[in-house]
Write the structure tokens for this entry.
Amino acid sequence: MNEEKYLFVVSGPSGTGKDTVVHTLLEQHPELHKTISATTRARRGEEQDGREYHFLTVPQFEECIAQDGLVEHANYCGNYYGTLKSEVEPFMQSGTPVIMVIEVQGAGNIKRIYPGATTVFILPPNMEELERRLRSRGTDTEEAIQNRLRRAETEIALSADYDECVINDSVERCADAIYAIIEEKLKQQ
Ligand code: 5GP
């Protein structure tokens, strides 16, 4: 069995709405498994440990790296983010489609480790809309917003390396487009 075909990586700039899109996708298709990443960044708003992320200290995260417990990890805006092997390998092996929502560096690493994985980039309708969405969250400082906007431009430039690009002009349409990509891939031998 080609296990790698069950692996789907979704990226998109911060504020592009990818978490909402993936949430809708999972509501409509509960058979999909979304990985819960480990991170050293501070919790935002209502986030809970073990639900949005496994929130770790820097020494805990570095211990995970030392123990070879991560499939990939990256530094994003000064914090560690990484995907635990236990969130990926058992699901791929049992033929459960796995969705990883990770940034571009991690996506590139996954594609190198698992060339059969499918990478999908979610684009905002335009940069003005991206900035509006980032500001409307009301959870980040001005410095963090500017940092994420600069990072977004770099990330969008890398979207050409992805297998598929979808525009988030409507959450439902975008979730449907991603599911169509998954269905198509799962049909392959
Ligand atoms: P946020 O702080 O907004 O939750 O996430 C910042 C960025 O880190 C997002 O682009 C998110 O997709 C990415 N990210 C989340 N988990 C992981 C992970 O396990 N690995 C990598 N490489 N990036 C991740």
